[in-house]
Amino acid sequence: MNSIKGFAVTQTNPEDVVSNLETCCLCGARLRFSHKTDYLKMEVQEEAACPDCGVKNKVANFILQ
Fold first, then answer.
1. SS3 string of the chain?
2. pTM of the full predicted structure?
3. First to last CA, the chain
4. So what's the pLDDT on residue 4?
């Protein structure tokens, strides 16, 4: 394992990373994402929820570029 700036770096397949972000950590179902865009503030709020078990992720805020 290599180290960059003190963090361990592993070779990870990009498809595996996307799959981990899109699946529920409890039941493994595909998450449903909702986005709210505020064009005046140039922000997007993203929330993910699992339709099977009801788990919701923390709302993430992103800046539009």
1. CEEECCEEECCCCHHHHHHHHHECCCCCCECEEEEEEECCCCEEEEEEECCCCCCECCCEEEECC
2. 0.68
3. 35
4. 57
* Location of structure tokens 């064009």: 39
CA–CA distance, 62 with 43 (Å, rounded to integer)? 6
Pairing of strands 60-63, 43-49: antiparallel
What CA–CA distance (Å, rounded) separates 10 from 17? Answer: 12
Q: List residues bridging with 47 in a β-sheet.
A: 34
- Note whether 25 and 55 are within 8 A (CB): yes
